[in-house]
Amino acid sequence: MPPGSGHSIWLDGELADARGPHLNVTDRGFQLGDGLFETARARRGVVIELDEHLERLRAGCLALGLNLSASDDQIAEGVSQLLVAEGLAGTGSGSSPGPVGDAAVRITVSRGPLERRGLLPAGFEDLDATLVVQAWPYAPTPAAQLERGLRAVSSSIRRDPSSPLAGVKTTSRADYVYARLEAARAGADDALFLTLDGRLSEATAANLFLIAGQTLATPPLTAAILAGTTRTWLLAHAEQLGLAVAEVDLRPEELLAADEAFLTGSVAGIVPLVSLDGRPIGTGRPGPRTGALRAAREDWIDAMSMAALLPEPAD
Ligand SMILES: Cc1ncc(COP(=O)(O)O)c(C=O)c1O
């Protein structure tokens, strides 16, 4: 079977045939989008920043009152089993033979199945969450897209920073799908959300950054954004890479006047953004510092995966 043929998933504690059937039709994830998910990058079978993803998942479970009984270790074990079963855990490198296992991993949790109708019918507290892990071969961002950069439109959907769900990665993604449709209908690659009061928030599946002079700026957590793991990494590493960091409210005019801009996400990494609503950002071309940050993040991912595979030192 070729790697990543998608024949298996990991469902509630064991490998299962991806072609199913698996889910009860009353599952609340299906019926109501009553669930959460995480998408992470794996390299050499090592899930990058798995702890951060699981921490965010558990914070979401707490916010929505989902009972996820699986431990972090059990989830990590499930992901490993799946990557091996799918042939996506290759440990090769430039000097050793065999493929480097690069994958996108999705962990989805829903409140579980409940026969009764309604938003919170009797019995909802007793449900044990459904847990599914899926894996795909990693599809690198096409070189042509990196050379040209992404074009964005501003979505007509506004984000409410006072919403307690603004930073929760729920499976209720209709707003994000709609915004991506707005982009596609305008011939653009992605959409940026603004807050109700006109500040920049984030893209449909990525955080937003700009570079102005020697400063790397990004909207703060109070701008109705997801606290992205790649965003957190950049804020921690940018100074070593020669940039001062600023989590500040930004307006579209500041984005257009920036020297460079980019979007960040776990799987796609750091991808240049070159226009908003048909107007160029900076020169309208991907900038050199965006390219350098992207390379630094990719190198770090590679180093983290190698380090995780080193044998534990003996006591
Ligand atoms: C809305 C949104 N913002 C930001 C991100 C980036 O988060 P991360 O860097 O953890 O992938 C994502 C990732 O899917 C997202 O869906």
Number of domains: 2
Please state the overall shape, judged from the principal axes of the Cα atoms: globular
What would CATH call the homologous superfamily of the largest domain? D-amino Acid Aminotransferase, subunit A, domain 2
* Sheet of most strands: 9 strands, mixed
The rounded Rg comes to 20 Å
CATH topology of the largest domain: D-amino Acid Aminotransferase, Chain A, domain 2
The number of helical segments is 8
Per CATH, the architecture of the largest domain is: Alpha-Beta Barrel
Order of H and E elements: EEHEEHHEEHEHEEEEHEHEEEH
The secondary-structure class comes to alpha+beta
Low-pLDDT stretches are: none
From the N-terminal CA to the C-terminal CA, the straight-line distance is 41 Å
Helical percentage = 25-40%
Mean pLDDT: 95
Q: Say how many strands there are.
A: 15
Question: What amount of the residues lies in strands?
Answer: 25-35%
The distinct ligands, each listed once, are: pyridoxal-5'-phosphate
Q: What is the name of the CATH class of the largest domain? A: Alpha Beta
Report what the structure shows.
The chain is α+β, with helices and mostly antiparallel strands. It folds into 2 domains: 130 residues, Aminotransferase class 4, branched-chain amino acid transferase, N-terminal domain (D-amino Acid Aminotransferase, Chain A, domain 1, 2-Layer Sandwich); 159 residues, D-amino Acid Aminotransferase, subunit A, domain 2 (D-amino Acid Aminotransferase, Chain A, domain 2), CATH 3.20.10. It has 8 helices and 15 strands. The strands form 2 sheets. Strands 7, 8, 9, 10, 11, 12, 13, 14 and 15 form a 9-stranded mixed beta sheet that branches. A 6-stranded antiparallel beta sheet has the order 2-1-6-5-3-4. The N and C termini lie far apart (41 Å). Bound molecules: pyridoxal-5'-phosphate. Pyridoxal-5'-phosphate binds next to helix 6 and strand 13.
